[in-house]
């Protein structure tokens, strides 16, 4: 018997309704975010909870442990994260700032690992969380070393404004990606959030295309981008060589 495509689509809509900082969602909010009728969202949530993909917490549901376990089996992210963590630790030690590892998915970056620092700003990024690629250092670093169709997907999705300094003009973003390809370092100058800056570099595979990116983030008033950029670039180059074998 073929799978129920309608159920699968609705199940995906329910699962992707959750955000990284959600501790649990009620039926009404789940329905609003998924675009499904409340009764449908509730029924699917119960089915997913029975399968272990969601967990019930009174009248609310949250993402289940089984989803985390499945996510840990994703080869690209697991291999990239496992290889990157030692370099990320060294980078945090050298800069005393928060270090990110992210990959590109569509028009967004997904944060695979974050090593925080004491005294750093509250960042909009979380492990498993997403941000529009064009407003982040890691996103721009990846796009600079991605196929043209990946850049086109970001432009076609529309360049949303996350802060007063977000670059939303396609021409300006394209020119910035050209500079990043030449220099190897991307910057977020309060584009993803006020007061936050970061320097990022792409992690490259054997074909010269980005597998992901590393970044260092901190307060705009305390962290000098020119000072941390060489360390980020060196870490990304060394990690690239490790992954290329």
List the helices and strands and how they pair.
Layout: H1 5-15, H2 27-34, H3 38-50, E1 54-57, E2 60-63, H4 65-71, H5 75-95, E3 98-105, E4 108-115, E5 130-132, H6 137-144, H7 148-157, H8 170-183, E6 186-189, E7 196-204, E8 210-219, H9 225-244
Antiparallel strand pairs: 1-2, 3-4, 3-8, 4-5, 6-7, 7-8
Helix pairs in contact: 1-2, 1-3, 2-3, 5-9, 6-8
Tell me briefly what this model is.
This protein has about 240 residues and is an alpha+beta fold. Helix content is about 45%, strand content about 20%.
Task: Give the key terms.
single chain; 245 residues; alpha+beta; 6-stranded antiparallel beta sheet; two-stranded antiparallel sheet; 9 helices; 46% helix; globular
Order of helices and strands: HHHEEHHEEEHHHEEEH
What is the C-alpha radius of gyration, as a whole number of Å? 19 Å
N- and C-termini, Cα separation: 44 Å
- Percent strand equals 15-25%
Overall mean pLDDT stands at 89
Shape: globular
* Main sheet: strand order: 5-4-3-8-7-6
- Residue windows where pLDDT falls under 50 for at least 5 positions: none
Task: Enumerate how many helices there are, as a single number.
Answer: 9
Largest sheet: 6 strands, antiparallel
């Amino acid at each position: 018997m073929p799978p129920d495509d309608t159920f699968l689509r609705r199940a995906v809509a329910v699962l992707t309704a959750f955000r990284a900082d959600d501790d649990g969602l009620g039926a009404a909010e789940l329905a609003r975010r998924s675009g499904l009728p409340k009764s449908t969202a509730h029924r699917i949530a119960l089915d997913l909870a029975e399968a272990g993909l969601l967990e019930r917490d009174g009248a609310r549901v949250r993402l289940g442990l089984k989803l985390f376990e499945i996510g840990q089996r994703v080869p690209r992210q697991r291999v990239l994260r496992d290889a990157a963590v030692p370099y990320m630790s060294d980078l945090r030690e050298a800069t005393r700032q928060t270090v990110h590892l992210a990959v590109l998915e569509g028009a967004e970056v997904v944060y695979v690992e974050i090593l925080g620092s004491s005294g750093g700003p509250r960042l909009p990024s979380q492990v498993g969380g997403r941000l529009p690629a064009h407003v982040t250092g890691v996103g721009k670093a990846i796009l600079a070393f991605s196929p043209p169709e990946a850049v086109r997907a970001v432009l076609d999705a529309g360049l949303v404004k996350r802060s007063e300094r977000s670059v939303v003009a396609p021409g300006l973003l394209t020119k910035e990606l050209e500079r990043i390809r030449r220099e190897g370092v991307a910057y977020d100058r309060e584009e993803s959030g006020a007061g936050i800056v970061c320097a990022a570099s792409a992690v490259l595979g054997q074909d010269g295309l980005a597998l992901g990116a590393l970044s260092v983030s901190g307060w705009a008033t305390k962290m000098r981008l020119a000072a941390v950029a060489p360390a980020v670039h060196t870490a990304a180059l060394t990690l690239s060589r490790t992954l290329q074998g």
